[in-house]
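[step 3/7] fold_predict: job queued, chain A
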Amino acid sequence: MTFTPRIAAVLAAGAAVVAAPLHAQSFGDYAHDSLVGLALDFPGRHTGSPVFQQASDFMAGRLDFGGNAVVRQDFDTSRGPSHNLLVTMPGASDDFIVVGAHFDTAGSFPDLQGVDDNGSGAAVLTELAGHMAGLETETGLVFAGFGAEEIGLVGSRHYAENLTEAERENLAGMINIDSLITGDFMYAHAGSNYLDNPQLKSFWTRIHGIAEELGIDLRSNPGLNPDYPIDTGCCSDGASFEGFDIPVLWLESTNWEIGDLDGYQQTENPAIPGGATWHDPETDNWDFLEAALGEERIPQRLQDYSLLLTRLLVELTGADLIASAREAGATGYRMSDLLTRHTGDLRDLALRGAAGRLDAPAEIGRLAPVLTVEGALRPEGSDHLGQDDGASARILLGGAWQMSETLSLGGTLAYGRSKDDLTGGGDLTAKGAAVGLD
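[step 4/7] structure written:
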């Protein structure tokens, strides 16, 4: 699936979405470029390291695509200063959803690329911010690149604890994206707060419905370990938001049916020692993962998660409804314009036919036939109406019986067809007939 500038493909039935300034790229392409840069150019981006600051500058450059303003939120940690990167996209209401992914790496390894954990989630975050830039939404968005996740979720906790009272009231949900490549399967879990309030499982319900529609194999924690109840996630920045009365959604790739049934063992792939690549410079790197998982795994996972989450965000923010309403209004206006021109052309044709008969009366006692065919092209179209070009054709059939020098009886039948080709694809057509007696 591809994008055109400012126009996304239809992401939900009947909803044309005006968005996605990721110039003619496929889902996952922008994330792939972000991941290549983040992982290969900035390994060892752990808290307190100079590389983290360099990686942050790179991330800010990827997040500001489409004119997004990136704000740095500073905080201190036991290992030195760190910060979050925040992109805020207000909606028509004060409500907003946080979409987050950490971009720091674990330990103090200078060569840990962190392709899986969590270059992958951070890369998808940059693509989602690009997709949603410029969209009119009912519910706003905050895209958060968290620092210091690997030393205790420090960045996300700092963000959550420093929300104002009004922001806490308006926080409508949180989506966390972490470690998308190594695991055998794709997962989306709900926050554990849904156990007390099932309504907080709404994000989970919607994304699994989207995955089913798109034919993407998306799973959820089966609850085989009693410490991790069914359909809940753990162990990443989503936990910083589970104290709020909001839906929380966890995205990850792992395998919850092996090892200790806790999702920590990611894969049964024999090429990956111990079944996990977390925090290991020898395995969580591009060359190793590509060799163990195949060249298609990284781009495929980025594509699938990007597609799922883009569709989810469009629906959760109401962008699809706003775009649909605008498109419906524009279509109505175009139809009104087309019908006005169409009926006017038919009327004018009939009036010209009648005027011609009156100007040149036939011989008394004789029937005078009438046949007129005409057409028109509008190659210039109309940018204002979203029309590339248009064409119309009309035919007039009729006759008049001259009864005396001052009296005649005539009738006509006019038929016309008009068509406008629309800039965004498709067309509008009007057909009609008119009968006249004179």
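[step 5/7] annotate
DSSP finds nine helices and twelve strands in the chain.
The longest strand covers residues 387-402.
exit 0
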